[in-house]
Structure formats: structure tokens, C-alpha cells
Fold this protein.
Amino acid sequence: MKKTIITFSMISISLLGLFQISKYSITKGSINIESIIAIIAVIFLFIGMWLNKKSPKEKKSDTIINTERISSLGISEREYKILQKISEGYSNKEIGDQLYVSESTVKTHVSNLFQKLDVKRRTQAVQKSKDLNIL
């Protein structure tokens, strides 16, 4: 939250400064409009570069899928595909459409996954499977 406030404050201050520069150039007539546009472009270029450097990068995990753990939990191949789709954020209906099964079949597989992973919610299933290195 603090970062967002600082970022928007910097952008607001930059805009106000640019407005003052353009107001000065228009009233005094000493700076042409192309120079003002170039200054604005350079300032926003640096703001964009600074924001890009400060933004959190997605961490690519090099974790190896533990296939032995999957088989020891008794997770079938179809259940594992459904678990992957759950981790991608798809609904039961969307998963069924993608895997060419009915929504009730997806619900059955999800229920079996919950029992095998000993969880009660989809988010818990995804988190536990990541902890067990099966996702």
C-alpha cells in the first residue's frame, strides 16, 4: 500500500511540474512545444523504468514434481489433471469443458482430491500440493 501511495505521489508531482513548465513556456514563449514534449517523454520514460525495476517479478520455481508422492497419495492421472486446472483458477464447469467430462464428474474428482489431500477447500488443496511438490 505504501509503495502505491509513493508511486502515485511521484506521478502527481511530475505532472504538476510538467504543467508548470508548459505554463511557463507558453507565457514566456522561450521554449518551443517540441522541447516540452521531449521533456515530458523523457520524464515518463524514467518513471516507467523506475516502476518496472521496483515491481515484483514472478519467480519461476525450478521445483521438480514428486511423482512418487502423487502415486503414494493415490491420486489418479485424471485427478491430477483436475488439480492442475484448479491451480490455474478454473471453475468446475470450465474444467469439465476442457477435459470433456461432465461437471458432476469433475465434482467427484475434486471431492476425491480433497479426501486424499486431507483438505476442505480448493485453495487449501493447491497450497498443500505445492508444499508436497506435486504441483
